[in-house]
Design brief:
The chain is of the alpha+beta class. The protein has a 5-stranded antiparallel β-sheet. Strands 1-2-8 form a 3-stranded antiparallel β-sheet.
Length: 151
Amino acid sequence: MKSLAIAILLGLPMLAAAQTPPGAHRADAPAAQPMKRFVWRDEAAGYTFVGPQRWVGKVRAVPLASKALATSGATSGVRFLDGKHVVLELLAADDGREQALKSAGTTELSRHAGHVVAVKSAADGGELALTSEELAAAVQWDGGAAGTVSR
């Protein structure tokens, strides 16, 4: 009786290992689904940029390097690229650094809770460029409405 109980106890882990749960091993990966909307999140500044539908699958976000941020006076920034072509460049900083942003050739886009988001005027988006209405609605602050400005 003891030997039967020991055999059963030792045999249970082997049976469990033989049955792999579905999807865990040797299962095909799910098919890639196309992005339905273009969204980029800036955790440091506390906002989300929502691009237009025409950007989906064409534009990619590339965070700015620390050297580029240092020259502009921004605390965070991103370049939206279509291939190698710059569609839009956004820079974010706190209220104390807004003068540095302006001297770097940017225009204030939105402001909320001590943070400023500016757009670099040198960026030429071509056919993927945003209209002024799209640009104003693209920045969505945490805890605020799209394009919220509070002074």
